[in-house]
């Protein structure tokens, strides 16, 4: 199905700002060259421009890329400002981001990773 991003195994956010004039090939090149990740893996890659009112998402569906674009009419995304980095986020953090919240919610109960807790 076109754009069914719910099937993505991982979600990566490109922190800092991305040139929003880039399309599929340019964003896939950033994923490969800057972040050393495979854009063909079952992952969703998120990008945001300097004004933080627009977001692009790149997702490989197995037979081609899907490029999703969202522009807010009012407000802006609480985008992490770390320079030129990529960060893996949870589906919950992705929802927070789309709702205009920061992905770093200090009062949220965090899941415990059993592998690192032992």
UniProtKB/TrEMBL annotation:
**Under what name is this protein listed?**
IS66 family insertion sequence element accessory protein TnpB
- Matches recorded under InterPro entries: Transposase_IS66_Orf2 (IPR008878)
What Pfam families does the record tag this protein with? TnpB_IS66
